[in-house]
Please model this.
Amino acid sequence: MQNVPQTKREAPNILVTGTPGVGKSTLCQRLSELTGLQWLEISKIAKENDCLEEYDQVYQCPVLDEDKLMDGLEETMCRGGNIVDYHSCEFFPERWFDVVFVLRADNTTLYDRLVSRGYAGKKLEDNVDCEIFQTILEEAVASYKEDIIHQLYSRTPEELQDNVNRICLWLQQWFQDNQT
Ligand SMILES: Nc1ncnc2c1ncn2[C@@H]1O[C@H](COP(=O)(O)OP(=O)(O)O)[C@@H](O)[C@H]1O
Ligand SMILES: [Mg+2]
Model:
């Protein structure tokens, strides 16, 4: 990364990542309502801003125009106060995030959630494998400093509430540490 001095953010940027179906959007929506931080659901933003390229027939999902998306988000991310929600994390600039939460679920829970979402065949299998092989956790570890990465299980409503509480505490601490 270039050694440019960064202007200080007024509020932190949080990344919430994990396999599709682990509960990212559910958590981010709750957090956004509670904290007033802006929830950026990347799949939706990409669609709305024409950042999707051709459809990948094998993986049955659209291919993201990452550069266009990153350019469009740069200013918002520099201001801070965002919760970024996406099922991949390696292409975001490392400097964007103050903390990274990788959500996890067990295989059967995830399988059931994806089936209710209408996933089947290879797409279902690939996503469950992605969780079994901890692909997104490894991606996070390869992309961000290990001490800002936290793994959180989100299998039950109780765990969801615990995660919300934990992230709110983290946020309070950030504001304490970054008082001007
Ligand atoms: N902690 C949880 N306990 C029980 N159900 C959950 C939990 N988190 C999410 N869900 C449910 O799992 C499904 C997938 O959640 P969602 O937030 O859409 O996942 P993602 O955004 O990661 O794809 C939804 O039906 C949601 O209600
Ligand atoms: Mg989602």
User: Anything to note?
Assistant: Helices lie at 24-35, 42-48, 66-79, 107-116, 121-132, 135-143, 157-177. DSSP finds seven helices and seven strands in the chain.
